[in-house]
């Protein structure tokens, strides 16, 4: 026997492009509304103005994050970490309740893929026309259609990359410099990188990102249980499947409600058959639900052969939304949200740092006093300029000299003040002594903040 005849030609199956069939329905209408809303937010927010500046701007060189009326500094980065933790918990909660609903309706990969497919539909037609075009030999028409698609993809990806950089560099100035080809090297790099990533992920990789690259698909099962809403095929109702006429008596034919039309497979963006059970490739987009419901309507059957349901519901058992894991997620999310709001509302609009001069521990003034020089770093986090007064205490007869005596600190500005602290030689024993610097800010809500430092009295 020829052993080579039994060997496979390849260990890998050649990838075939998935052209999902277009489908209409309530879930797809919701998905499209969500897609256009999210894309609109992404592309329009950088162009919004707030009090004479860009409303949302992450100014890395100046180390300032502007989010509408809030200005975050490096000292406030814990708030951003706080938000990320809350977002992760919200994702875990939504997964426990409704499966991979994030993947199907709000994930950037899904949103941009839908946008790229929409552009492809404009140039190459519906799913059957795209399949036929792919198999057809190269002609002038095919070249024009494919070229037009690539051109639209390139422009859209470039616009996406420019918008991304516009969140970190003022977008109006960025757009003018891009039009005059005077961008900086790092701006060119990140625009190109993000454009290429968008073009590749949404234009070419598409479902392969969800199936092979996304880590979320791999650990989602850890958050699923029998009460999690998933897209499911009702096997008890649908089997045995088979084709039939519209008015056929299914009882006489011994068939279930599934007519084996395969529309659930044709509309799936990842190319799976939901009738084979829950699969990690399923992104819960509900396209198969809308497709199957349209067939059930035409056949005169009840909707819901494929539907959002739970494993308990399929087995005839009650389903519960509130259960230990969802209650824990809700409780943690509520506590974190309350803590975040409290921390944001009570965030001090003024910070003070005290740095003692390292070059000279102290010096004697002509008047015979002991003097130490400090650098005071003042940060005004508020959106208006503030008058700040400085005081010091800790030693008898201590005096503080700053220039100017009252500091006018502009909005969202870090300022430095040279402070000279003087005491008489007999004010304290030799060695180090604690001082307390206090900065007082006026305004509608007066603020007072203190920091400690050390004052060195000379040895005898």
Q: How does the helix and strand content classify structurally?
A: alpha+beta
* Amino-to-carboxy terminus distance: 105 Å
Shape: elongated
CATH superfamily of the domain at 350-457: Immunoglobulins
Kindly report the average pLDDT value: 91
Low confidence ranges: none
Structure overview:
This protein has 460 residues and is α+β, with helices and mostly antiparallel strands. Among the domains are: 225-314, no CATH class; 350-457, Immunoglobulins (Immunoglobulin-like, Sandwich), CATH 2.60.40. 42% of the residues lie in helices and 20% in strands. The chain has helices at residues 26-44, 77-98, 101-105, 108-124, 127-135, 140-166, 171-179, 185-205, 207-213, 216-219, 235-238, 250-253, 263-266, 287-299, 311-314, 324-345; strands at 49-50, 53-54, 56-59, 64-67, 70-72, 230-233, 306-309, 350-356, 363-364, 370-380, 386-393, 399-402, 406-409, 413-423, 431-441, 447-457. The strands form five sheets. Strands 8, 9, 10, 12 and 14 form a five-stranded antiparallel beta sheet that branches. A four-stranded antiparallel beta sheet has the order 13-11-15-16, with no helix packed on it. A three-stranded antiparallel beta sheet has the order 3-4-5, with no helix packed on it. Helix 1 (26-44) packs across helix 4 and helix 2 runs antiparallel to helix 16 (324-345). The chain is elongated, with a radius of gyration of 33 Å. The mean pLDDT is 91.
């Amino acid at each position: 026997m020829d052993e080579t005849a039994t060997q496979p030609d390849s260990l890998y199956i050649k990838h075939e492009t998935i052209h999902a069939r277009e489908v209409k329905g309530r879930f797809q209408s919701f998905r499209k509304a969500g897609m256009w809303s999210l894309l609109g937010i992404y592309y329009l927010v950088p162009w919004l103005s707030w009090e004479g500046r860009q409303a949302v701007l992450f100014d890395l060189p100046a180390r300032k994050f502007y989010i509408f009326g809030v200005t975050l500094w490096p000292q406030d980065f814990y708030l951003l970490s706080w938000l990320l933790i809350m977002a992760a918990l919200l994702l875990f909660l939504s997964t426990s309740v409704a499966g991979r609903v994030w993947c199907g309706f709000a994930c950037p990969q899904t949103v941009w893929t839908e946008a790229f497919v929409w552009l492809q539909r404009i140039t190459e037609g519906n799913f059957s026309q795209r399949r036929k075009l792919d198999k057809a030999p190269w002609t002038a028409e095919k070249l024009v259609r494919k070229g037009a698609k690539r051109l639209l993809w390139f422009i859209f990806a470039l616009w996406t990359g420019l918008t991304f950089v516009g969140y970190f560099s003022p977008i109006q100035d960025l757009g003018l410099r891009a039009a005059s080809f005077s961008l900086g090297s790092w701006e060119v790099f990140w625009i190109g990188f993000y454009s290429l990533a968008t073009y590749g992920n949404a234009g070419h990789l598409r479902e392969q990102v969800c199936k092979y690259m996304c880590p979320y698909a791999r650990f989602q099962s850890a958050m699923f249980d029998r009460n999690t809403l998933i897209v499911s095929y009702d096997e008890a109702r649908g089997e045995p499947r088979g084709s039939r006429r519209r008015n056929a008596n299914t009882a006489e034919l011994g068939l279930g409600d599934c007519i084996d039309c395969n529309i659930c497979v044709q509309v799936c963006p990842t190319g799976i058959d939901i009738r084979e059970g829950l699969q990690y490739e399923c992104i819960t987009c509900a396209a198969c639900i809308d497709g199957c419901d349209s067939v059930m309507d035409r056949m005169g059957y009840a909707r819901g052969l494929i539907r959002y349901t739970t494993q308990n519901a399929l087995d005839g058992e009650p389903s519960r939304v509130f259960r230990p894991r969802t209650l824990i997620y809700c409780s943690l999310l509520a506590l974190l949200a309350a803590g975040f709001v409290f921390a944001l509302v009570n965030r001090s609009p003024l910070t003070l740092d005290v740095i003692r001069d390292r070059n000279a521990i102290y010096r004697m003034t002509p008047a015979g006093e002991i003097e130490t020089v400090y650098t005071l770093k003042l940060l005004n986090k508020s959106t208006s300029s503030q008058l700040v007064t400085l005081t010091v205490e800790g030693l008898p007869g201590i005096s503080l000299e700053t220039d100017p005596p009252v500091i006018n600190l502009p909005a969202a500005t870090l300022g430095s003040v040279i402070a000279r602290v003087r005491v008489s030689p007999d004010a304290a024993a030799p060695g180090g002594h604690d001082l307390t610097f206090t900065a007082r800010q006026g305004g509608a809500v007066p603020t007072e903040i203190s920091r400690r430092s050390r004052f060195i009295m000379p040895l005898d």
